[in-house]
Each structure stands twice: as structure tokens, then as C-alpha cells.
């Protein structure tokens, strides 16, 4: 049986090339600089919308946020040239599950304060949402990069 690899030097060079390709792909998969700056306010508006009263218009920020989310997904695809699909396993999947759970918990906690009529509380909840959104993007990028580096 014949191999295209002539020796250990060729094998090491091939492994380095694979590692370089993984690093390049991880860099392309990372969210652009503006992505976290949009996700944070979207989450802030979603959480703060629970505190601004009752009525059908209360759901308007969530619907508008959904439209903006689809728009930034398209922008992410254009900026990176890569479509991010749901993670299949590993650290990125765990981070994704934790992110969804954290958003649900944050939304439920914000809803607990719904009848208090405190403007400062709305600002505090919005700031928590803003910080959480930016942190979610960074954590997701790191987890995806780690999974890509460990792929071989």
C-alpha cells in the first residue's frame, strides 16, 4: 500500500495546515464587531417590554426585535460569508442551551416586576439585557472556536 506522505515532516506540515485552516474558519465564523452591539439592545428591549404596561402593544417590541434579528442574521452571513447553523454538539451546544435558558430566566424575572411602575427598574432590566446580549455573543464565539480547534 502506497502513501502520499513521504515522512514525518510531510505529516507535520499537513497537520499544521489543518490547524491553520481550522483557525481561519474559526475566525470567519466569529461574529462581526457590530453583531454584539445589536444583540444587546434587542435583548434589552425584549426584557424591558415586560415592564411597560399591559396591552397588545406590549408585544410590539418582541415582534420588531424578531424582524431585526432576521436582518442581523442576514448581515452576519454577508459579512462573514459563512452560515452559522445550530451546533451539533460540544461546547457550542452547551453554551447555546445555557443562553436560551438565561434569556427565559431573565424574561421571567423581568415579568415578576411588571406591576411595580418604577422607571429605574426598567432601566436596570434593560442594562442587564444589554450586557447579557453582548456577553452571549462573545461566549458563543469562543465556544464555537474551541469546538472547531478540537475537531481533528
Over the alpha carbons, how many angstroms does the gyration radius reach? Answer: 21 Å
**Count of helices?**
5
Q: How many β-strands, per DSSP?
A: 0
Which stretches of 5+ consecutive residues score pLDDT under 50? none
Structural class: mainly alpha
Q: What is the overall silhouette?
A: elongated
Arithmetic mean pLDDT: 77
**Major sheet details:** none
Element pattern in H and E:
HHHHH
Task: Estimate the strand proportion.
Answer: under 5%
State the helicity in percent bands: over 70%
Distance between the termini: 24 Å
Outline the structure in words:
74% of the residues lie in helices and 0% in strands. It has 152 residues and is mostly helical. The longest helix is centred in the last third of the chain and has 31 residues, at 119-149. The chain has 5 helices and no strands.
Structure at a glance:
With 152 residues, the protein is mainly α.
What keyword list fits this structure?
5 helices; mainly alpha; elongated; 152 residues
Question: Layout of SSEs?
Answer:
Layout: H1 8-29, H2 33-48, H3 60-80, H4 91-112, H5 119-149
Amino acid at each position: 500500500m502506497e502513501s502520499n506522505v513521504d515522512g514525518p515532516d510531510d505529516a507535520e506540515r499537513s497537520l499544521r495546515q489543518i490547524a491553520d485552516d481550522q483557525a481561519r474558519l474559526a475566525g470567519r465564523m466569529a461574529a462581526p464587531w457590530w453583531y454584539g452591539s445589536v444583540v444587546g439592545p434587542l435583548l434589552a428591549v425584549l426584557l424591558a417590554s415586560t415592564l411597560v404596561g399591559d396591552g397588545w402593544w406590549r408585544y410590539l417590541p418582541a415582534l420588531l426585535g424578531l424582524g431585526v434579528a432576521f436582518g442581523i442574521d442576514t448581515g452576519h452571513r454577508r459579512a462573514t460569508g459563512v452560515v452559522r447553523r445550530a451546533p451539533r454538539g460540544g461546547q457550542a451546544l452547551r453554551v447555546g442551551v445555557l443562553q436560551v435558558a438565561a434569556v427565559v430566566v431573565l424574561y421571567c424575572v423581568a415579568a415578576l416586576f411588571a406591576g411595580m411602575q418604577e422607571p429605574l427598574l426598567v432601566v436596570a432590566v434593560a442594562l442587564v439585557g444589554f450586557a447579557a446580549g453582548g456577553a452571549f455573543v462573545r461566549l458563543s464565539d469562543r465556544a464555537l472556536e474551541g469546538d472547531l480547534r478540537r475537531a481533528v
